[in-house]
Amino acid sequence: MYERSRKVSRKGSENLDKHLLEALYHRYYKELYIFVYSLCGSETVTDDILQDTFLKALLALKDSHTNMRAWLYMVARNLYYNYYNRQKNLFSIETEEVDRRNSREKIISGEGEAFIQNDILEEILHKEEKKRVWDAVNRLKGQKKEVILLQYFGDFSQKEIAAMLKITPGNVKVLSYRAKKELKEYLTKEEGR
């Protein structure tokens, strides 16, 4: 009898874990995908890292994490650096073509002539501006890039970023300032061209 109740209890716990993992996945997958993809630029690597991230989450569900979102970001970041270091040691850095579907121009042709409608032109200009900003962010190196991504795209506080990167909040503030300065200089220089 005792053994049977333990099995039922364990099965109920597994269902709870499954539902909790599904909720975490649906809530954080998209933003984690953007974060990891911006670090590596590879859809395949991003998918692998996120699969491992959520596997670690499943294994760690019973542990108490005060901020699951920050923990997931930290795990994904660490897995990326583990991957990067392995690749660097093997001297075989993957060169995948980056998916640029979202930045393609939408051209509508009518009666044999191509023309661009005003709303499509606005969309293209908006996408081009977003692309310029992403290109500028991707030019940043190391922790400056991570701080900007976590601060503006992950919407984490400086204190949370400091905990994730294992640095002081003061260092986060300095890195953020320097990164924004570099971004401003780069974007201003690009506008002048």
Automatic annotation (TrEMBL):
Keywords assigned by UniProt, alphabetized: DNA-binding, Sigma factor, Transcription, Transcription regulation
InterPro entries according to UniProt: RNA_pol_sigma-70-like (IPR039425), RNA_pol_sigma-70_dom (IPR014284), RNA_pol_sigma70_r2 (IPR007627), RNA_pol_sigma70_r4_t2 (IPR013249), RNA_pol_sigma_r2 (IPR013325), RNA_pol_sigma_r3/r4-like (IPR013324), WH-like_DNA-bd_sf (IPR036388)
Domain RNA polymerase sigma factor 70 region 4 type: residue ranges: 132-183
Superkingdom to which the source organism belongs: Bacteria
Residues of the signal peptide: none
BP GO terms, sorted: DNA-templated transcription initiation
Stretches assigned to the RNA polymerase sigma-70 region domain: 24-88
Disulfide bond keyword on record: no
UniProt GO MF annotations: DNA binding; sigma factor activity
PANTHER family: ECF RNA POLYMERASE SIGMA FACTOR SIGL (PTHR43133:SF52), RNA POLYMERASE ECF-TYPE SIGMA FACTO (PTHR43133)
Record family assignment: Belongs to the sigma-70 factor family. ECF subfamily.
Full protein name: RNA polymerase sigma factor sigM
Gene name in the database record: sigM_3
